[in-house]
Amino acid sequence: MRTRVVFNQKGGVGKSSITVNLAAISAHQGFKTLVIDLDPQANSSQYLLGDDATYSTHKPALEPNIQNYFEEVLGNTQSKGLIGNALGSILKSRAKGLEAYVHQSPFPNLDVIPASPDLGSLAHALESKHKIYKLRDALASLAGRYERVFIDTPPAFNFFTLSALIAADRVLIPFDCDVFSKRALHSLIENVLETQEDHNAELEIEGIVVNQFQAQAKLPREVVEQLKEEHLPVFNSMLPPSVIMKESHHKNLPLIHFATDHKLTQAYQSLFNEIEQKQS
Fold first, then answer.
1. What single string gives the DSSP state of each residue in 229-251?
2. Cβ atoms of residues 252 and 49 within 8 Å
3. HSE-up of 234 (CA within 13 Å, CB side)?
4. Where are the transmembrane segments (predicted)?
5. Domains of the chain
């Protein structure tokens, strides 16, 4: 099982779009694929599950979700009454495993563990109880069920991002050719390398995914060239801007199912192939 985290501390760089579209291509090519959404905005969840995963003031988040899993890790849903009942609840919840929180998407071979808007409220309790390795251990139990796992992360280096990096083999870094993104990139890489040193020796930065790349514009070309001059692992397959992505979001259809022959879909296909070839 290959587990990839899509991570950037800067918001608005296309994390969820990249997560979902690469996962959808993976599933379309026959790999049993899982998306885990750790971002409270739940964009990946909504992209794949539509209205079912869309929450509002009057509509709660879809359950079971990743917040429910971490609540079970903490024992927050156990009975507060008799000690025996509480112990039984703890043992029962620990026996569930991560597979109990999986939802089937409408697309073959593609499952989702959705996010929740209140996920962040658990971070302090999880940190204080040293639960940073729980996601890694839970994912290990799914190795026989999935071949590819893609984890969408919040735009911050927090407990949930660190949990994902500890659980993963590879990191994909979305990059939108912005000067501010370039300045933040070194801090991001330092965080990944520190995680590798302290928690997960197997973790590798698989590559930088250049998003919203305008090939005819001077600045994006210069920024990408600078990254390459710094010997950073920039993928050759770059993703152009297109309104088709917003349409894909609106329809809750990943590009491979919405516009197979579109240039952006083909760019994603090329990127996926490059990632897979790099792995082999």
1. HTT--B-S--PPP-THHHHHHHH
2. yes
3. 22
4. none
5. 2-56+102-279 (3.40.50.300)
